[in-house]
Structure formats: structure tokens, C-alpha cells
TrEMBL record:
PANTHER family: TYROSINE--TRNA LIGASE, MITOCHONDRIAL, TYROSYL-TRNA SYNTHETASE. GO terms for biological process: tyrosyl-tRNA aminoacylation. ATP binds at residue 227. This is Tyrosine--tRNA ligase. Homodimer. It comes from the Bacteria. Catalyzes the attachment of tyrosine to tRNA(Tyr) in a two-step reaction: tyrosine is first activated by ATP to form Tyr-AMP and then transferred to the acceptor end of tRNA(Tyr). A motif ('KMSKS' region) lies at residues 224-228. It comes from Acholeplasma hippikon. It is an enzyme of class 6 (ligase). It is found in: Cytoplasm. Its EC number is 6.1.1.1. Keywords: Aminoacyl-tRNA synthetase, ATP-binding, Cytoplasm, Ligase, Nucleotide-binding, Protein biosynthesis, RNA-binding.
Amino acid sequence: MNLFDELVWRGMVKDVSNLDEARKMLNERSVKFYVGYDPTGESLTVGHMVQIVRMRYLQKHGHIPVVLIGGATGLIGDPRETSERKMLTVENSLHNAGKIEKQIRSLMPENTIFVNNYDWISKVDVISFLRDYGKNFNVAYMLAKDTVQKRIETGISYTEFSYMILQSMDWLHLYQTLDVKIQFGGSDQWGNITSGLELIRKVVGENDAVGLSSPLLLKADGTKFGKSESGALWLDKEMTSPYEMYQYFLNTSDNDIENYLKLLTLLEREEIIALLEESREKPELRFAQKRLAEEVVKFVHGEKELEVAQMVTDALFSGDFSKLDESAYQQLEKVLDVVKLNNEMNIVEALNASKLSSSNREAREFIQSGAVTVNGSKVSETNLMMNDIPLAYNKYVILRRGKKKYALGVF
């Protein structure tokens, strides 16, 4: 299967500006392509992984990725369907840009090219912007774009309205300086992608650039992918722990599993087909979900963090925490209720402080009924002092009531 057909099979292609040229470039040549990321936050989310995984596939087939960090466009804000974005300061935008670049560098091989559009857009004065670029954009054409149309009724500032021009300037700059022939983006960027193609045609007089988009990643029920009960799933492990990410994908529905395996992993086509077949035969074993969770966490955080996430998963299921290393406890701090304890407390006070019990009487009843364990050992004495309990790494103690109610005590 050639590269273009592989991308289509994986669901990574929606819109194509020139189908014949796209096939020729991707299947027969080695070209530079670019993907842009605006630094609207300190981290990307799992929703951005489709573009990153696709870059890896193109790179594997000899194409050269150019990652554009939008230090300038992030200051303007791509129009949302509902309301104006909150404006970033220059300092915030550049700070976020640095963090996102570092994040993507960790996921891409060394021969990836990184650029920041602040380096060229910040040098364009107002007169040059209007004469050299704005003159090439017809307002009626810009108003016809989907996102702009949806905002006309509620109102859109000229700042966000001009975003399309800035993104088009990016592609023109990369086309002229790095010979970037292809732009990839999500389907919500299609209007900006085609505007860039039009600007290249008008300024350079060439029609050999190609734009491609991919569908936005949604769940089978149409809801947004990458959201958990606590909010977005971030690629930064300080914002979303590898354990939380592992659990999210472990709980993928059968309706979503095929789509996610194709879009979010580097598994070969034959392996994905075999996994899906195995899962259909024994759905209760959730082979595909386990492999998906393993592949995504390993891709984003590495083998070591995957092992820790699996250790935490096993410990919370079995109640045995004896094999956890310190990094596993650090992940537990992000997923369990954490309570500050001290050596002067007894077990009843610790249970109340951790909200595993609501009163001294209830705490004693839980202990006397055998429902309370500390570090995996059942507690039978209601006067047990916390300074008599050995701490993991001189800091941690695991409190449990029943089978599923946990708290992490920290000294």
C-alpha cells in the first residue's frame, strides 16, 4: 500500500486541494511539509497527536517535517465558533511556544525542522501588511469561510478576522525560504490552508503547492475526544499523569478502538487488523484497548513511564503497593486524594482527615469490621499511631477503606 492510501486507510485525510498532485508528491517524491501549532497553552493535548503521528509516517517515507510554532499567530488567535479568544501577552506566547517546541521535539526524530513565525511576522510593518499581503485577499472570499460566517452574527474583531492572512503569510514564507510544498492541518483549518494556497499562487505565480486536512478526532457518539472528567488530557505529565492517560485509553469503547489504533499509534496495518480480530473474538479481554493504552503512553512518555503507569494500575486493582517505586508514588499524588498527616495522629484521625470516614465513630466501625488497610495490611487496632507505620520512601502511606476507596497520606 502506498503512503497516500495508507493515510486514507488510517482516516488521516479529509480534504485535498489537488488529489493527483498530492498522490504524486507523497508517493513518488521527497518533499518538505509543514504543520502549525499555536501556543495557546503550556502543553498540547492528546487531540494534537493525530498530526504528530501523521508527521512520523511521512517522515518514515522520506518526507521532511517542518514544525511551525505560532509565536505570532498565537498572539492574534484563530477565530473560534462562539467567542473571541483571550489575548495572550508576548511573554506568555513565547513562554508557551518554548514549552510546546520542547514537547514536540521529544516526540519527533532529530531531522525535524522547527521554525517560529514570530521571527518573520513581528518584522512586518502595517503598511507592508496591507500592501504586500492584504491586497491579495478579497473580503467577500474571507467572509465566505465557515468559521468567519459562524461569527458574523455574534461579532468578530478585525484582529481575529485577519488571522487567515497571517497563516497564509506563514505558508508563503515557508514556500519561498524552505521550499515547503505541503501543509497539513485539522479540518477546522481548511479555510486557512486554501487561503495560503491562493496567496502563493498570486504572489509567486505557481500552483504546485498542496493542502490536506484530517477530520477532527471525535468519539463515536460525536463528543469531543481527549476530555476526561477532570478536563483535557495533556501531553505534559505534570498536567496529566501517564497513569491517567493509560486509564483513559484502557477504557476506550469498542466503537472507538479501531479509529484510535489507526490515528494514534505507529502500529503496522497488519498488526492493527490482527488486534481488532482478536478483540472481536474475545471482547471481554480487551486486547486492543490494552495495546492502545500501552502504545500511546509509550509514544508520549517512554517505556519507563509506561511501566510505572502499569504498576500503579496493578497496585490499585490488587491493593498490593509493595512493588511501587518512588516515581509511582509521585503519579499516585496526582490521581488519589492526598491528605497531609503527621506522627501525632492516630488511625482514626487519619481516616477522618482523608475523608475515608466522616466521624470517629464511623472510623472505629470501619476498623472493627476489617474494612481498613494501611499499606496493604489490615488494621484491627483503633488506637494505632501513625508514627508506628513504616513509610514508603520516608514520606508516603496508603490508606484504603473497602475495595476501592483510597487516600494517599503524605508526611
